[in-house]
Amino acid sequence: MLDDLDLQNMTIAVDDAGIATLTLNRPAKRNALDAASVRELIAVFTALPRAGVRACILRAEGPHFCAGLDLVEHYHADRSPADFMHLCLDWHEAFNKMEYGGVPIIAVLKGAVVGGGLELASAAHIRVADEGTYFGLPEGQRGLFTGGGATIRVAGLIGKARMIDMMLTGRLYRGAEAVEVGLTQYLVPDAEAKSRELATAAAANLPLTNFAICSGISHFQNMGALDASYAEAVLAGVVNTQPAARERLDAFARGMARKVKPEDRD
Ligand code: 1HE
Question: Where would you find the membrane-spanning parts of this chain (predicted)?
Answer without folding.
Answer: none
